[in-house]
Structures are given as C-alpha cells and as structure tokens.
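[agent] plan:
  1. take the single chain provided in the ticket
  2. run structure prediction with default settings
  3. attach structure tokens to the ticket
  4. add a short note for the reviewer (M.T.)
[agent] executing step 1
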Amino acid sequence: MSIAAIEATGLTKSYGAPSRAGGTGPPVTVLRGIDLRVAPGTVFALLGPNGAGKTTTVRILATLTEPDAGTAAVAGYDVRDERHRVRRAISLTGQFAAVDEAQTGRENLRMMARLAGLGRAAARARAAELLDRFGLYGAGDRLVRTYSGGMRRRVDLAAGLVGEPEVIFLDEPTSGLDPHSRRALWDTVGELAANGTTVFLTTQYLEEADRLSDRVAVLHDGVIVAQGTAAELKSRTAGHRLDLTLATSAAYLRLTARTPHASHHDPGARTLGLPTDGSARHVRALLDELDPAGTDVTHFAVHTATLDDVFLTLTAPGPGPGPGQGTAHHA
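[agent] step 2 finished; step 3 output follows
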C-alpha cells in the first residue's frame, strides 16, 4: 500500500468552554476520534455543518493545533514530531484571501517566493509562471485592491503554490464568490490534482464536493459518519428521493412529524423529500403508508438522490453516534 498523502487515526480534540463568570467551563469535545486516509494526487472533501469540527481537523493536519489524542501524518511526516517538515510540504488557504492589497499581484507572489527561499531571479520567474497559470498575467501589475473577489482568491491560491507543496488545504475556498468565479476556481483545483497535488477541501457547497472530490467524508458532531466516493454515499443513503407536495399546511406538519428521516423540507411549497430505492413498489408503499386516504398528497415526483440528500440525512438532528461509531460507516 502506497504512503498516504494524509493519514489520521483516532484524532480527538476538546476546548475549554467560556463560563458566564469569564473563566472556562467544562471542556467542549470537538473531535471524538476520527480516522482519515487520503491518497496522493486526489481531491478529498470534508463536509459537515457549522461546528462539526472541520476547521479543527484542518488546523491539526496543518500543525497549527495539537490533538489531545491520536496520530496524524501529512506527506509522510508526523504532525507532532516533524511539524517543520510538514509545513514545508503543505500550503493552507483559509476562508478569506490573505493578500496584501497595497501591492500588485506580481509583488505579492514575488514576496511569497522570496519568503520561501527563492533568489531574486527565481522569484520573478515563479511569480510570472503563476500569474500566467491562474489567468492573471494581464492584471499582474495592478494593485490587488482593484481585483474582484475571484481574482483575489486566485492570487491567494497562487501564493500558496509558490513552494510547490505536495498537499494543499483549502478551507471553504469559494465562500463568497460569484458562480463564475467559483467555477473558475473549480477548474484550478482540478488542474492541481491532475498535476499530482493532493487537495484537502472543506466546503459548504455540496455541488462543489460532488464535482471535485475523489472521496468525501461527512463529519458530524465530531465523528466521521460516512466516507467514500460521492456515488457510493448516494447509493448507500438512498438511490432516489420521493418528493411529496401536501394539500394543506396541516397535512405538511403532520407528515413532517411522522418522517424524521426526511432529507428535504420546504414549508413554503409544502414539500417533503423522502429517501427511496426508486422502485414503483417502494413508492406505492410509501404513499399508502403516509397517505392511506389519498387526500393529503396532491403531487409526487421521484428524483435521483444528490449529495445534499446524503448530507441532510446523515446530519439530521437526533441521537448522535456513540464513541467509536463514527468511523464504522466507510463505503
């Protein structure tokens, strides 16, 4: 088995919770023992609701935070004992572009290249190469403050690639971008993986993970509740979704109370989405069970399940998995 680009076993992390008196209260457990393995040259997406532990996971893997327990290695180096080697092998791009707006795009990249140890001539060449690669060559001599949000994000990503990292962490990289800029960045991420860079991505956009990732992990309440390819997770959760449109708000509320496993809710349209295998037999059985009198459901439609359905089903409110259960759901 080849060396993983990222490998983590049993990672746990807790933080002290602030108390009303101004001190710290009982510790809040953020990670409850997660396992991850990412193959080199692939795109791995970590999904989860806010507060699930995504950023904490990235901070541990990027050596910015130490785990309370467990082990992790990035690019073959231990994140505790070889943190300097890890840092030389990675790049981390956060949710907001960390560029100097008072400099040009070219100056930002040359500065980063010099900080990475390149000589003046090599830094100039590397900056020019990255400006061209990210479609910014014509804007390279403009101040970054004049750039659009998408252009700033591309400069930020380019700066992270100055040292040609083996692994790049992208923490919600398209947050706040317009659809055109988001798709342009998707193309860039695809090119990175095609050229052998391992990309570890956290995102709130399910379409983004579906399109970009080779493998997906869903993090919920500090544990990995599912892991596999997007197709595997869709087929495991449900191959299809049955959307029911209810006749009245009262009927919608009644069926909502009876279907805690619903993966889609739209009170305004009085629509519920339920997992199904897509067969006529199962659809008829669901309709007979939920609306035996045939008066509550006015319309229904069957759709192929999306990653959104997987996410909503796996992170639905309810009893969370107990210790050690989160990593048992690998596809």
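[agent] step 4 note for reviewer: DSSP finds eleven helices and 14 strands in the chain.
[agent] ticket updated
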